[in-house]
Write a structure and sequence with these properties.
alpha/beta, Nucleotidyltransferase, domain 5, 2 domains, 5-stranded mixed beta sheet, 10 helices, 10 strands, 42% helix, globular, binds 5'-O-[(R)-(carboxyoxy)(hydroxy)phosphoryl]adenosine, binds zinc ion
């Protein structure tokens, strides 16, 4: 296997942990392409169907990789390493990306770099300026995770708070399902909330430490809707925008209050958001307000680097390449890969 020590290092990165097939090329820390193919087949099922997701990855991975290389204007023989998401995620989905990466690395005789999907969401902040220069706290909010991560350095990440049940994105998606919205409901709630008022109040959880809980909120929304629909069958339809606004405001307040506490406990006032829910407009605004309240800096990734994308896998792999941390050919995907 050839480990290149030349001055230009090109890495192809592959992300296939859930329902987006993505490939990106990074050259000396600069992202040259970031192709993302979404899967719309899950929309009518209220969530990702694992079997359909892996089949879609199989169908899309070759054209997505080809397009990433084409846009970057890099040929396969110019690649120095192949990076891939090892986990956490859906086994069948991860298998497609891992197997593809292994085959390509073997045929090109170049090293492979395994990347932890949750690390990559955080490291997306190193893709564009302004890049964090010192310790910061990152609120990672996705469909499967809700974490407050203390970032000591790109390769030294520590979870200081996490959800004890549902993730923030799951709270958006499940609330949306109760409102009759398609999966993923987060972006739709975001859009409709802009037209509504926060008329309704829902339970805020009581959880120890810097942890989160969203299952109580889910139950509170369900009981509230059931009660209202008994007396007014059109309640959801007639109050859709206000319901979306009220649900969104509650989720954002729960997240921001905990992050504020984390800042107070650690004395860190540089804050960031990452993961799919960081595309939420109210959360983006709230993080900016919290930073100004704390007189600190805030970091918000560009939209294309919020939801699942290979650009974040690519940037994460550059730090590992610098440390020559390569994966072996017998590596397997790990759906529950530890942080
Ligand atoms: O990080 P991600 O793309 O995939 C996972 O690793 O889970 O996150 C997907 C989650 C979904 O729950 C989706 O509803 C949510 O991110 N999401 C949003 C928005 N855009 C995506 N939630 C609220 N507002 C948005 N604008
Ligand atoms: Zn993700």
């Amino acid at each position: 296997m050839q480990v290149n020590n030349k001055s230009i290092i090109n890495i192809l990165a592959i992300e296939s942990s859930c329902d987006d097939t993505s490939a990106a090329v990074v050259s000396n820390g600069v992202i040259l392409s970031n192709i993302i193919a979404n899967q719309i087949v899950h929309q009518n099922y209220g969530g990702v169907v694992p079997e359909l997701a892996s089949r879609e990855h199989q169908a899309k991975i070759v054209p997505v990789v080809a397009e990433a290389l084409r846009q970057a204007n890099i040929s396969k023989k110019d690649l120095n390493a192949i990076a891939f998401t090892r986990g956490p995620g859906l086994l069948g989905s991860l298998l497609v990306g891992v197997t593809f990466a292994k085959s390509l690395a073997l045929s090109l005789d170049i090293p492979m770099i395994e990347v932890n999907h949750m690390h990559a969401h955080v490291l997306a902040h190193y893709i564009e300026e302004p890049r964090p220069q010192s310790d910061f706290l990152c609120l990672t909010v996705s469909g499967g995770h809700t974490q407050i991560v203390h970032v000591h350095s790109p390769l030294q990440l520590e979870i200081i708070g996490t959800t004890i049940d549902d993730a923030a994105g799951e709270a958006f998606d499940k609330a949306g399902k109760m409102l009759g919205l398609n999966y993923p409901a987060g972006p739709v709630i975001d859009k409709l909330a802009k037209l509504g008022e926060p008329k309704f109040t829902f339970t805020h959880p009581r959880v120890d430490g810097l942890n989160f809980s969203f299952s109580g909120l889910k139950t509170s929304i369900l009981y509230f809707l059931q009660k209202q629909m008994k007396t007014d069958p059109n309640f959801i339809k007639d109050n859709m925008n206000d319901l979306c606004r009220s649900i969104q405001d509650t989720i954002v307040a729960i997240l921001i209050n905990r992050l504020r506490e984390a800042c107070q406990q650690t004395g860190i006032n540089s804050i960031a958001i990452a993961g799919g829910v960081s595309a939420n407009s109210a959360l983006r605004l709230a993080i900016e307000e919290l930073a100004s309240e704390l007189d600190g800096q805030h970091f918000i990734p560009a939209f294309q680097y919020c939801t699942d994308n290979a650009g974040m896998i690519a940037i994460a792999s550059t730090f590992l390449y610098d440390e020559q941390q390569f994966a072996d050919q017998d590596i397997k995907p790990d759906p529950r890969l530890a942080f």
